[in-house]
Amino acid sequence: MKKNWWKVLAIVLILYSLIAGFLGDVPRRDILNESIRNLYFHVAMWFAMIAMMGASLGYSIKYLSGNHLNIDARANLFAEMGLVFSILGITTGSIWAKFTWGAFWTNDAKLNGTAITILIYLAYFILRGSLDDREKRARISAVYNVFAFVLMIVFIGILPRLTDSLHPGNGGNPAFSQYDLDTNMRWVFYPAVVGWILFGIWVSGIRYRLYSIKESLDQWRNDSSDQLH
Amino acid sequence: MVKQLVALLRKDVLLEFRQRYALFSILLYVVATVYISYLIFSNIKDVRTWNALFWIILIFASINSAGKSFSNESENRFWYYYQLASPQAVILSKIVYNTLLIWIISLITYIIYSWFLGNHVTNHLHFLAVVLLGSASFSGILTVVSAIAVKTNNNATLMSILSIPLLLPAVIIIVKASQLSLMGMSMAQNGAYLAGLLVLNLLVTAMGYLLFPYLWRE
């Protein structure tokens, strides 16, 4: 129990953000109306995605300096978790955009950025699939992961600031800090972000354990078949 | 390091000069694509379409030419190079060589494209600055991706899957910058985009320099 306190915290924080997110008081705004509550879920997904991709990057760098296949498995699992969050983020964002901007998809710098992020990570999985040798797969996909992450950060972090965007904080639209995210909303938004990040770490931890069980089962099968022959 | 780089670069240029294979195959590709576009569009009046088509042709020509940068020599020969030179020198020489190659291709594309489909550029110097900076950033990204893709079995498919998403940051800046230049803005008004491209080039080259030593190790 002592080691698992953060899993409890993840559940508590997500439940809290769900309950407080739907029942709490939110500022009344034109166009946005009640849909402003989506901020707790939609924006939290992006924070969680970047955290997962960042963890994946960290493990890729660690793999390149150490060459342990387990580390590569962790990098892969975190990238998969990041992709799940990005798909959830793009879905919640599309629905929100339909009700506020009038279309599921707009030619917005941030939307382009997320589409590219998803393409980059899908390419990462295809690259992994096309390499059979495990050492080689780990090494080459780690290099691609580092290269792609840096370009992705350029894309979603710097480019939207050069161009106009419908999102708050760009092209003359007011940022969260000005009035969108008032103090009450902060008290739900930040716990939601922390909760989802912890949840992502938890899920990829469980999947890592599944991976290592499969690994040792394979090892055991190989060993026993060696003994038979 | 610089000596190794120059020697490797000289080797690549000599190889190209003797075989004349890569450059001419890409040039033929460009001519054929431009002529198809000419048959389809006949004459482009809209500046945005003109700009978009020019860059689409150039992007795919660059992917085709830079995709071969590690696969047109045998792998054994690379082992020989690594005995003689540092991996950093190998990747830097390949980036410089591809930049030169794509510069030549983009200049010739520009001439052939204007010949068939008309030219909407008012300030040629400004547009060429965008073209040269843009091609340089293509070559950096594509060289690193080609070093990755050559390690896999289906090199050609993976080359485009891996590189197109990574090219997009550069492409968006380039298209904005070249549209501004077509609208007759001065170079100074376009400064932010040109500087952005330059920074992107430096970043990509630095990434290649840091990451390539992990790629060639077997």
Structure overview:
- The complex is a heterodimer of chains A (229) and B (218).
- Chain A is an all-alpha fold and 229 residues long.
- Chain A has one domain: Up-down Bundle (Four Helix Bundle (Hemerythrin (Met), subunit A)).
- Helix content of chain A is 79%, strand content 0%.
- In chain A, helix 1 (5-23) crosses helix 7, helix 2 crosses helix 5 and helix 4 packs antiparallel against helix 5 (134-162).
- Mean pLDDT of chain A is 83; it is low at 171-175.
- Chain B is mainly alpha-helical and 218 residues long.
- Helices cover 82% and strands 0% of the residues of chain B.
- The mean pLDDT of chain B is 87.
- Chain B has one domain (2-216).
- In chain B, helix 5 crosses helix 8.
- Chain B contains eight helices and no strands.
Summarize the structure.
The complex is a heterodimer of chains A (229) and B (218). Chain A is an all-alpha fold and 229 residues long.
Q: Secondary structure elements and their pairing?
A:
The complex is a heterodimer of chains A (229) and B (218).
Chain A lengths: L4 H19 L15 H28 L2 H32 L8 H21 L4 H29 L13 H5 L2 H46 L1
Chain B lengths: L1 H18 L2 H20 L5 H20 L8 H10 L2 H31 L6 H26 L5 H28 L8 H26 L2
Helix pairs in contact in B: 1-5, 2-3, 2-5, 3-5, 3-6, 3-7, 5-6, 5-8, 6-7, 6-8, 7-8
